[in-house]
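Example record for the data management plan.
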Amino acid sequence: MKPWPCRSVPGVLLLLLLPFATAAAETYRIDPAHSAIRFRLRHLLGTVNGSFRQFSGTIELDREQPTRSSVRVSIQARSIDTGIDKRDEHLRSPEFFAVSKYPEITFQSRSATQTGAQEGDVKGDFTMHGVTKPIVLHVTFLGPGQGAQTTRWRVTTAPLNRFEYGLRWSESVERISMIARDVSVTLEIEAEAVR
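Corresponding structural encoding:
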């Protein structure tokens, strides 16, 4: 694997500079048609796998002062999909995501560091269910995307404790069903330059 073009790069350069060192575009947009946001939660009878179907994201690149660059992602909480309609409706209800009150789940970057030849950590503020906490996204470059002006990335983070975001239902039911507090999250992202 080839090394990164520099040893210390801010969050947006981690996402953009390697494949588009000479590109003129200053804005990159996540393509939801070729991206995915998935999660996994364990319980007594197995594992629930789900995803969010509607999301958007923008990467702003300041080439003169890269530390001013930023990444923002917005997920529509209503688009949660676990493959069971009744469960999804319950998750959208006030007992869980309360999507009418908290329609968006967001991430706003603050800084980044390089951790390997094709990897980096992006720190930022994650907001879900009205609660904002700092998290670190682990980003890995996967190569070019569907078009000449796109890149692909895998993004992971430490498991999220849903209790910290107020996402809990009946304590007795959850204890009996052994529904885990921690939720694993993985993103497959393709971003396209906006001219």
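Summary line stored alongside the record: The chain has one domain: 11-194.
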